[in-house]
Amino acid sequence: MTTNQLVQEIKKKKSFLCIGLDVDLNKIPEHLLQEEDPIFAFNKAIIDATHHLCVAYKPNTAFYEAYGLKGWKSLERTIHYLNKNHPKIFTIADAKRGDIGNTSTMYAKAFLEDLAFDSVTVAPYMGKDSVEPFLTFKDKHTILLALTSNQGAFDFQTKTIDGKELYKQVLEISKTWENSKNLMYVVGATKAEFLADIRQIIPESFLLVPGVGAQGGNLQEVCKYGMNSQIGLLINSSRGIIYASKEKDFAEAAAIKAEELQKQMAVELDCHSKS
Amino acid sequence: MTTNQLVQEIKKKKSFLCIGLDVDLNKIPEHLLQEEDPIFAFNKAIIDATHHLCVAYKPNTAFYEAYGLKGWKSLERTIHYLNKNHPKIFTIADAKRGDIGNTSTMYAKAFLEDLAFDSVTVAPYMGKDSVEPFLTFKDKHTILLALTSNQGAFDFQTKTIDGKELYKQVLEISKTWENSKNLMYVVGATKAEFLADIRQIIPESFLLVPGVGAQGGNLQEVCKYGMNSQIGLLINSSRGIIYASKEKDFAEAAAIKAEELQKQMAVELDCHSKS
Questions:
Q1: Distance between CA atoms of A114 and A15, rounded to whole angstroms?
Q2: Of A12, A86, A191, A204, which has the most beta carbons under 10 Å away?
C-alpha cells in the first residue's frame, strides 16, 4: 500500500485509528476457548465488528509466538483474512526486529513478502545496515522505533548523544538511509509534548503512536503537535478496545470503544481541514 | 543451566565455541531438500557431527521465521532435539527481541519456558522495563546487545552519550536492573580492541562474541582482551562452520572447521590456566 492510499482511507473513514491485535488467551471470552483456533476466532470477530472504524490493524508478534506453532498459524490466518477481505486496511507486523544485514533480509521477507504485511516495526540499535534491507520493498513501510511509550524510554532514548537526544539522532540519521521515504516512526503518546520537536526533524513522515488510552496518552495533544498536512498519524489502541468486554458481546463492545475514538478523530480531522 | 555448569562444560570440552544454526535453504546440500524437514535434517546432522566440539548452539530465529509455519516447526524440533540429547549444551535463541513490559513477558515465556532455550538475545533500546521480564527466569540468561559486529554499530552504539559511548551506558545501566546477574552481553569480535574497556565495566559477565571468521574477527585478540577468571566467553561461528561444504560430506566438513576452532580455543584455555 502506498502512503497516499493510506491517507485517502483516513480521509474517507474519518479515522486514523489502528487497532492492536494483542491476543492473550487469558483475557478473551471463555466461550471462544472451545474454538479450534481461539485467537483467530477472536481476531475475526473484532475485525468484522471494527473494520469500518479503523484504517490499520497491528498484531504484536509476541502474543502469537507465545503460543508456538499454533500462534504462528493464528497470525497467518489473521493476516490472510485481512488481506483477502480488507485489502485497503493498512497492516502492521509489530515485531520490533533488527539484525545484521543478511538476517534482516530474512525477517523482511518473512513479514513483508510471505505474510504480506504492509509494514513491520524495527529497532534502530544496530544501525543502518540492519534497517536498510527492510526499506527495499516497494510500497512497503518500515516503522522504526524512535521514542517508545514505556518508562524504559528514558533509560537510553532521551539521553543526550553528541548534543542531541538519542531518539532525535535516530530520526535524523535514518533520514539519510537508502529508500528512507519508506520509513515511518514509533512515537509514544505518553510523550506528546516531544512531538513538536519531532515534527521539526521529520515533518512529512507518518508516526505510529501507541499509548493512547491504557498507557495514559491524550489524543488531542497528539493531534495538536503531531498532525501534518497529510495527517501523518496512526493512533494505536489495543487493550482499551479489544478487551472492552470479556462476555459474548466482546466484539460489539470493542466496536463501541473504537467508535468513541473514531468520533474524536473525526473532530480532529474536521478542525484540521479547516485550519 | 547455571553459569557455573557452562564454565564446567567449557573446561571439560576445552572449547568455548558456539555454533550458529542459521539455516538458509539456498545454502544447504541439495540432497537434503528431498527430506520432509530439510532444515531439521541439516541441523541434526550438524549437531551429531559437532556436539563434542562446542558448548553452545545458537539458531537465529530470522532464518526459521522466513519459512513461516514450517520454519517454526523446524526450530521446535531443533531445540527439542538438543534438550533431549545434549542437555549440557547451552542453547541460545538469537531473537533480538524487546518490547514493552507485558509483551516482553510473552517473548520470554515463548523462548525460555515453552521452547526451553537456556537464553535469548534481547535489544536494549526500550530500556529497563523491556528487559527485566526476561531476567526473572531462574537459571536462564538474557544476552543483551551491547556492541554488535556489523558496520551499523557505529551509527548509534559508539556515539558518546553523557560523556560515554552508548554501548558502555548500556553495560553500566543494565547492571543496575533487577536480576542483572542473569545478563550476558553481545560484543562483536570485529571490535576486539574495545574488549579491554568493556571488561572494566563488566569483569564477571559472559560475552557472546559473533564475528570471528566470516566477519573478520580474530580469536587471539578476543581472548587476550575478553577472557576472565571464569573464561567468560562464548565465541560464535555460523557460516564458517555450517557451510564448509555443500556436498554430502557437509557435516564432516563442519566438524573439521569446528575442530580447528576448538583446538585454537584449547591452546588459549591452556595459556590462560597457566597465567
A1: 28
A2: A191
Distances (CA, A) of A20 to A62, A66, A235, B12: 12, 16, 10, 49
**Strand-by-strand arrangement of the A160-161 sheet:** A164-165, A160-161, B160-161, B164-165
In the set A11, A96, A109, A128, the catalytic residue is: A96
Provide the mean pLDDT of chain A. 95
- The dihedral built from the CA positions of residue B141, B146, B149 and B150, taken in this order, carries a sign that is positive
ipTM: 0.94
Per the listing, cell 503512536 goes with A209
How many A/B residue pairs have CB atoms within 8 Å?
A: 174
| CA A201 to chain CA mean position, Å | 21
Nearest to B159 among A148, A150, A161 (CB): A161
Return the amino acid letter for A56.
A
CA distance A162 to chain B (A): 6
Q: Could you tell me the CATH number of the domain that includes residue A17?
A: 3.20.20.70
Question: Could you tell me if A131 and A111 are in contact, meaning their C-beta atoms sit under 8 angstroms apart?
Answer: no
Nearest to A124 among B73, B107, B125 (CB): B125
- How far apart CA B85 and CA A107 sit, in angstroms, is 30
Q: Give residue B105's domain range.
A: 3-274
Q: Dump pLDDT digits (tens) for A96-137.
A: 999 998 899 999 999 999 999 999 999 999 999 999 999 999
pLDDT of residue B9 exceeding 80? yes
Domain count, chain A: 1
Mean pLDDT, chain B, whole residue set: 95
Which residues in chain B are closer than 8 Å to A166, comparing Cβ atoms?
Answer: 156, 159, 161, 166
Question: With b meaning 16 or more CB within 10 Å and e meaning fewer, what string describes A61-71?
Answer: bbbbbbbbebb
Q: Which of B67, B80, B100, B121 should be substituted to probe chain A, the one whose Cβ sees the most A Cβ atoms within 10 Å?
A: B100
Contact B125 A127 (CB under 8 A): no
